[in-house]
Amino acid sequence: MDAEELFRQHLPTIGQIAESICRRNGVGPHDAEDFASDIRLKLCEDDFAVIRKFKGKSSFTTYLTVVMNKRFLDRQRQAWGKWSPSSQARRLGPVAMLLETMVYRDGSSFDSVCQILETKHALAVDRRELLMMLAQLPRRAPRRFEGDASLQTVPSGEGADERLLAGERDDQLAAAEGALRHALRELPDEDQVIVRMLYYEGLSISDIARGLRLDQQRLYPRVRQLLAGLRTTLERQGISADCIKDLDSS
Question: Which CATH number describes the domain made up of 159-249?
């Protein structure tokens, strides 16, 4: 059987292996779809060169699994670059370093992190403790993927006035972010965790309630009160309503 026919016959298997690799590594649906497309293209390159290297020393499914895992790791290395834990994570210990890595380097959801810590690292997970720990870690820059840098070199169709206004808007948003961080530091520890998990980490109210062992129904009005208080604080510091709306949607 030629390489192209072998590829076509195993397309469902390729999809299943890709899904399994991404699920095991806590990869979200969008990135998982990108990886599946990437691996299909990789297997087709150079007249199916990767498939033609198959010598039959194992099952073809096993061969595909090895090849696809290697490709996944290569993509991760390219996307992450050199990663090192923050000084705060090192101070908090090994669990904090794992938590920071999986959340900010790997982009894993909080639930995925808990499952990985329990199954892969055999750790007894206390969700409340982990959430409190995550709130103490510094925000890390999002992962950069191949092609991001090239966007900076694309000529803009905007005129000088538009670019100036955009720059001013960015400055306003940066000031609003700074004011928000300052306001958060004035809140009690648990309130800081709640707002951070909701605003920065994108957790749902139900996830936060479960993680902090709080009553979910009582958490809804508490969150509304916290956000209203933060909004009032920002407005008193001269942050415009438009900037606050932009923060809400970011």
Answer: 1.10.10.10
